Amino acid sequence: MKWKKFTLTTTTEAVDLISCAFDEIGIEGIEIEDNIPLTEKETKGMFIDILPELPPDEGIAKVSFYLDDDADVPGMLEKVNEALEELKMFTDLGACTIEASETEDKDWINNWKQYFKPFTVDDILIKPTWETIPEEHKDKLLIQIDPGTAFGTGMHETTQLCIRQLRKYTGSDTKVLDVGTGSGILGITALKLGAKEVFGTDLDENAITAVGENLEANGIPAGLFTVLQGNIIDDKEVQDAAGYEYYDVAVANILADVIIMLQKEIPVHIKKGGIFITSGIINMKEEVVKEAFAANSAFEIIEVTYQGEWVSITARKK
């Protein structure tokens, strides 16, 4: 099926009114493009580390909507134009021009899978659940992951940095705290490396389902990996559920600003001599994270590793 795409050029101040008007006439979803910078509150809530550089905001916005071939396109466009004429009495619609184009119907939910192929981290093979094991990697430690649409595949440099550190510090009796567990790839890697148990936390409730499915894909009993939705930084229930001075290793592949907050909380959850593995740190944030660890008397940095533009900092609890 082909979809007809219609893009309205208007003003940023008119977008909310246009959105409401389009909803009333039966357009169920719109796409908005503008150059308005995100606020500090928005970036904090989205845990964005690096923002793209935008052109200057000139008050112009593009509002796109899609109609399929079976729709009454002329009739809908007539309603759109009537709605816009009415809105002109209340606000400045700017150019108020509409461009038409066509786009093909695609399986956007699953289209990303074509880019997720088996890959190795040293002697560990990580592959999507729908791929077969490459013949040349059959002797490697196998981890199967289906990240779904909510989490990363593990191919990112920061995940690989954490996996290499887990390889160094995980033994048969290791208890692991996995903060920001996502698909569970790091916790599952730890279990595959012989860890005794894993406790994971994540802000996204989808992590609970994702970890459960990936445990099954790897033949790991569900009881070895507990996942709780919540924020260990400031949620007492999550903190209590995790337990205190219990873990041999904590791992967090998140973002530099979150790690800076985490390094204050993690010491109470790991044993003396316990290891805290971190990544998700872009190189320009390396020094500020190091400074945060240096200011924390509970930790000493024991290793810093790099891959591409990314950094992993590993610390030991004194």
From TrEMBL:
EC numbers: 2.1.1.-
Keywords: Cytoplasm, Methyltransferase, Ribonucleoprotein, Ribosomal protein, S-adenosyl-L-methionine, Transferase
GO terms, molecular function: protein methyltransferase activity
Class of enzymatic activity (EC top level): transferase
Cell compartments where the protein resides: Cytoplasm
Record-level GO BP terms: methylation
Transmembrane domains' residue ranges: none
Pfam family, one: PrmA
Gene Ontology cellular-component annotations: cytoplasm; ribosome
Reactions it catalyzes: L-lysyl-[protein] + 3 S-adenosyl-L-methionine = N(6),N(6),N(6)-trimethyl-L-lysyl-[protein] + 3 S-adenosyl-L-homocysteine + 3 H(+)
Residues annotated to bind S-adenosyl-L-methionine: 159, 180, 202, 253
UniProt record similarity statement: Belongs to the methyltransferase superfamily. PrmA family.
Function, in words: Methylates ribosomal protein L11.
Protein name listed in UniProt: Ribosomal protein L11 methyltransferase
Organism for this UniProt entry: Clostridium symbiosum
Lineage: Bacteria, Bacillati, Bacillota, Clostridia, Lachnospirales
